[in-house]
Design goal:
This protein has one domain (about 5-165): OB fold (Dihydrolipoamide Acetyltransferase, E2P), CATH 2.40.50. It is of the alpha+beta class. Strand 4 and strand 5 form a beta hairpin. Helices cover about 20% and strands about 40% of the residues. The strands form two sheets. Strands 1, 2, 3, 6, 7, 8, 9 and 10 form an eight-stranded antiparallel beta sheet that branches. The protein has a two-stranded antiparallel sheet with strand order 4-5. It has helices at about 5-20, 30-35, 155-165, and strands at about 40-55, 60-75, 80-85, 85-90, 90-95, 105-115, 120, 130-135, 135-140, 155.
Length: about 170
Amino acid sequence: MRVLPLTVAVVAVAVGFWDGALASHIRHFSLAQLGREAQLIVVGELVAADSFWDESHETIYTDYLLAVERTAKGCRRDFVTVRLMGGTIDGKTLTVHGNPSLAVGERVVLALRDQGDFATLVGMAQGKWTVVARQERLVVRRQSGGAAEGGGPDLDLDELLRRMGAGGRDANED
């Protein structure tokens, strides 16, 4: 009769370990670490979005087209395709915890890894800031609405790039 409670306890512990193994873990990056990990740091406007299924029709991805206004790190280009897992297609929506929301028309700073035909964010939502104008200057804001690293809800755009080690001017300027 004692076998059943022991079996239930072993199964419960195994399920707990299995459930934890499936959970995602998002590594925290400092601004300097984001800058080191990124191959490309750009400022620009999202001008298009296209969601699609992967080849096995199991996962939805969305490609966002970014018109680059400024390249702070990496090779200068006019447009970058940024790919995120998730999106809506055929009446189905895939949401990925930890990914930022991106919207056509939004001005952003993105820390990216170059994957060839597209780029991916470094640190998921940590690699994205929204650019907003405030008192005749550009500042960046984290999506969560929480304080940016260094205090205050907003951070000066050039200061963000400096803290990431990307400098304040276009990477291809002399």
